[in-house]
């Protein structure tokens, strides 16, 4: 009986090479070879037991140990494995991790806070898929002091250039003479979403930190540090 074949991008995600979306980018960039031939088209199916898969010159021959890491990302690092501008990446902070892990979602270069990294493609897809509505909490220091009307706009949804945002949970934490700290909880993952939302109401972000993803927090970590998730935490994530 002929063995069932699977799509190449699913294979790469399942084996922890990258998330499925990132795996598609690897394929499109010509960085994946199947049996000695570069494959740069989507939809190709492979036989994991027979075909030889190579990514960036590295043979994908066996499933690595699944790793689940929680990092306190400092500002000034990018969420990528490589950077053409030679900026520091979050992977530079992972001493002692031999498995190839990748970020679950992204924090932009100037944003600090909680970042998950894993080589579990299935979990990554669950956490970043909009239908699961995994809440992420941010603390934003903003210019000026938002009014009750501004906060209500955030709670009702803000029209951005890529459409209306989902309603956010918002709390004004503190104020100074010319700035304020606002806590926001959102479940979407648009590019620079919190910064764009605050700009839309006239209060640009000066500093931004993600303090929580679902039930996970930064407790016990300093900027640049990371820890393994416990088995209980991983189980809870899978149930979200």
Descriptive report:
By secondary structure, this protein is α+β, with helices and mostly antiparallel strands. Strands 7, 8, 9, 10, 13, 14, 15, 16 and 17 form a 9-stranded mixed β-sheet that branches. It is elongated and about 65 Å long. The model has no long low-confidence stretch (mean pLDDT 90).
In short:
The protein has six helices and 17 strands. It has helices spanning 8-14, 20-28, 121-128, 148-156, 193-200, 231-239, and strands at 6-7, 32-34, 37-38, 45-46, 53-55, 58-59, 68-73, 102-103, 112-118, 136-143, 159-160, 163-164, 169-175, 179-186, 205-213, 216-217, 226-228.
Helix/strand order, N-terminal first: EHHEEEEEEEEHEHEEEEHEEEH
User: How many strand segments?
Assistant: 17
> How far do the termini sit from each other?
38 Å
What percentage of residues falls in helices of 4 or more residues? 10-25%
Mean pLDDT: 90
Structural class, from secondary structure content?
alpha+beta
Assembly type of the chains comes to single chain
Q: Helical element count?
A: 6
Shape: elongated
Largest sheet: 9 strands, mixed
Low-confidence stretches at least 5 residues in length (pLDDT < 50)? none
* Alpha-carbon Rg, integer: 20 Å
Query: DSSP strand (E) fraction?
Result: 25-35%
Features:
17 strands; alpha+beta; four-stranded antiparallel β-sheet; nine-stranded mixed β-sheet; single chain; 240 residues
Ordered list of secondary-structure elements with their pairings:
Elements: E1 6-7, H1 8-14, H2 20-28, E2 32-34, E3 37-38, E4 45-46, E5 53-55, E6 58-59, E7 68-73, E8 102-103, E9 112-118, H3 121-128, E10 136-143, H4 148-156, E11 159-160, E12 163-164, E13 169-175, E14 179-186, H5 193-200, E15 205-213, E16 216-217, E17 226-228, H6 231-239
Helix pairs in contact: 1-2
